[in-house]
Amino acid sequence: MNELHVLTTGEAARYCGVNFRTVIRWIERGQLKAYKLPGRGDHRICVEDFVGFLQDNAMPVPTELAAASRKVLVLAQRPELIATGRQALQQGGFEVEVAGNSFVAGTMLAAAKPALLVIDAGLEQANAFAIIDHLRSRGEFANVRVLVVTEAGDNDSQRWLEGGADAVIQGPADRAELVAKVKLLLDM
Amino acid sequence: MNELHVLTTGEAARYCGVNFRTVIRWIERGQLKAYKLPGRGDHRICVEDFVGFLQDNAMPVPTELAAASRKVLVLAQRPELIATGRQALQQGGFEVEVAGNSFVAGTMLAAAKPALLVIDAGLEQANAFAIIDHLRSRGEFANVRVLVVTEAGDNDSQRWLEGGADAVIQGPADRAELVAKVKLLLDM
DNA sequence: TGAATTGTTGACAGGTAAGACAGGTTTAAT
DNA sequence: ATTAAACCTGTCTTACCTGTCAACAATTCA
């Protein structure tokens, strides 16, 4: 069972340094999404919605709530890229999941909702464009960043960027470069 | 093996981000339907009652609890199979979604939680086994039925059944046969 | 048999809703 | 620049819902 984390109005208020009464007003005005408990009508706010609200209003996001935005999914089959990616990104402070094929990647993307997808263009080359295209055409995944790691010798980064990728690394990936790019893409 | 038909108060509480004591109070007040076990008087909540309760109160329904017994996902690239499948199954009373590649199928499977996956073995042959294997190895998807539609001339149904498929149709699929098989697999 | 786990019950402290009111800030008009 | 209006936010109060804690019972497992 996945722990769906929710906040009360008081918790949300403390996170952004205002009175809980103000948070209730944000909810009543429809600016912040929330649902009500049947008892007295207590409000509960999904962390996901709260983080989105903070970002929309350029408010600082508390690190303990930003865990979801530090989640990275790696779609790769080259063993060296899988090993490099997992180790480097975990050491860089990211939560890393690895998928070995595009079907598994799809299930993980929908279930774990990572903020970034690293695609190994080496063996998924034929599918990579279709994947990026699907992400870009669905509002649900529109804010998932995409980082493509090309095959050695593939210098045509422009092709990927035009296809919808947010950044490209020419493989085989350098650990430092990979972490740096990911941090850049996630604003960290 | 985890039959998700009933919930304990603790499970229900975690699902809606509330203390178990509160769930018991909802039950005592008659807002949430439940029954008691003879021993200690433990409460048990039917999933459908719980989902109805969540919907009545505009609370988010966890995807894994969403009733999806009539939802079918078709993973196919052959146009004739897509057309046949969609029309026949919709006329048969099923809610049909179509994915054109395995990544999209993965996202839809995790998001829409269909009860049945129809796989076109024609063009996803290489991946089909990996997909079925992944479904069967993950408890989360263990109760998703799998129906494989083979290529014309492929008579080796046994291979698919051993690989984890619940049923096989030798393609190209006959409309009536397809609907009949799906109804059979979903106990309808 | 006894320990561990899980769920119930009761009592109590604490938190939250809702309305009303006062103070501060922004916006617009003079 | 000054004023007034409009709006947002914080504080206060009352009522009652919710979380926490302790003790206990049923079930499971070794």
TrEMBL record, chains A, B:
Q: Which UniProt keywords apply?
A: Phosphoprotein
For this protein, the record's Pfam families field holds:
HTH_17, Response_reg
Keyword Transport belongs to the record: no
Note the Gene3D superfamilies from the entry.
1.10.1660.10, 3.40.50.2300
Alphabetically, the GO molecular function entries are: DNA binding
Q: 4-aspartylphosphate-modified residues are where? A: D120
Name the PANTHER family on file.
RESPONSE REGULATORY DOMAIN-CONTAINING PROTEIN, STRESS RESPONSE REGULATOR PROTEIN 1
Please identify the protein, giving its name as recorded. DNA binding domain-containing protein, excisionase family
| Phylogenetic lineage | Bacteria, Pseudomonadati, Pseudomonadota, Gammaproteobacteria, Cellvibrionales
